[in-house]
Amino acid sequence: MKLRVGAALFGLGVLLLVFAAGLPFYVAPSVTKLPYDLEPTTSVAEAKNAKFLKITRVDESVSIEVLQGDLVSSVEVIPQPDDTRDRLPTELKGDAVIWDVYQTVRRADTPDAVSQYSTELALYRISGAAAPWKEQWLNESGAEQTPVGNVSYSGQIYKFPFGTDKRDYQVFDRDLKRAVPAKFVGTEKIKGIEAYRFEQRIENEVLNTPEASLKPLLGRFAPGATSGQIVYSNTRTLWVDPVTGSYVNVREQQNKELRPDTGTATVLLDADFNYNDDTVSRSVETAKDNRFKIGLISFWGPIAAGVLGLIALVIGVWLVTRTNDGAARHRADAAVAPGTDPTQTRVDQEPVRDAETAEQPRTEPPAGPLTDEIPPASTNWKSEDPTVPTQRPAHGEVEQR
């Protein structure tokens, strides 16, 4: 029984050691990639007392005005596992995923949409950076059909890499249509989790605005101007979980101005968007859960499996060797008569006689047990045999013939 248990523990120990060695090399890389079947997520940011441009179209009439109030921005990310499987080119298969993303900015007091966009893009599964996919597109006007390939994404967009470093990263800006450096500025605690803080500063960048969109604005806010431009500034602060690369908090301080060639500038957008508390809490909890899974598979799992494997291996070897030693001793003892010691002779053991002696019974001498026979030299008797010496007479006794 002990031999079977020992062999089983030995095999279990070997299996656990192999498992411990394989976890960080074969299993861990699979959990540090964007999964194909990622659940859809929604992030909500709020801007209090913001200034914003509101364009309302009713039939043929268009109303353009700058309003002030609270805004709510919702960004919904919907992974597309079927498109990922069927539409990605060979060079991206297995390394990238396709996401559809929708953003809507609404007034907090009404359901009216202030602005919205939709896009489809491919992201690398490990780095989270945009992949060079020819079928990506961006729709900012709400048109029913969007030309495929009308945008070229680059850099980080909706997340950072797994294992984010303390360095600067290129982060894509949708208004500029290009990536701009986001500088690493330090670490901060966000609801109990350590996050890396990155800041991206965009200052007085002229946006590429179509003439058809610029003319109505000039006609409304600078009637005497013949040309103008929209100048964009933004300070984007990103708090990133360094293990998973996910955003745990985001802040965007946006500003857009219409600057005509004559007349005064008009603020079209002045808003300070911040993730609301529910989004931050949910992002932190998701990061904690994913951190635990990655740590379990990459670090704690191999250690635990290795320790248990060594313990099982040692106990198994001990049981097997102990059982073998006991069996050897049992075989040696079985070769010796029961109750005897092969290295000693017992004093109470019956002596061994030869066959002739053993067959003849012992007899008592005829003279009795006390005197036995008196030796001839000590007898007091006379003999006619001259060869036998006579006994000398005692003192005072006459020798008689």
UniProtKB/TrEMBL annotation:
Transmembrane segment boundaries: 299-321
Compositional bias ranges of the Basic and acidic residues kind: 347-362
Region (Disordered): 331-401
Domain of life of the native organism: Bacteria
Keywords per UniProt: Membrane, Transmembrane, Transmembrane helix
Keyword presence, Transmembrane: yes
InterPro entries named in the record: PorA
Protein name (Swiss-Prot/TrEMBL): DUF3068 domain-containing protein
Organism ancestry: Bacteria, Bacillati, Actinomycetota, Actinomycetes, Micromonosporales
